[in-house]
Amino acid sequence: MSENNESNRILTGRVIGNAMDKTITVVVERRVKHPLYGKFMRRSTKVHAHDDANECNKGDWVRVEQCRPLSKTKSWRLVEVLERAR
After folding, report:
1. What pLDDT, in 10s, does the model give residues 12-35?
2. E strands, 1-86, where?
3. Which of 2, 18, 30, 60 sits 20 to 30 Å CA-CA off 52?
4. Whole-model pTM?
């Protein structure tokens, strides 16, 4: 099931929701430079990822990988849990 081609994007983020069955909501933050003023700003994106074993909890740091669309909003899958929430 795992496609190991080099075009898959891998992102790291924090789990902010796990209320759905086998699905987690991950917020991915990035820093972008303001085009005029040059200040670095934080921008975030929320993605839904497939968590087959329901192993993630809120606050966990995870790595997710882009995959084929699994549902209307879910096209990422959990690769690994980097750090558990305290």
Report:
1. 999 999 999 999 999 999 999 999
2. 10-17, 23-33, 40-50, 61-66, 74-83
3. 30
4. 0.85
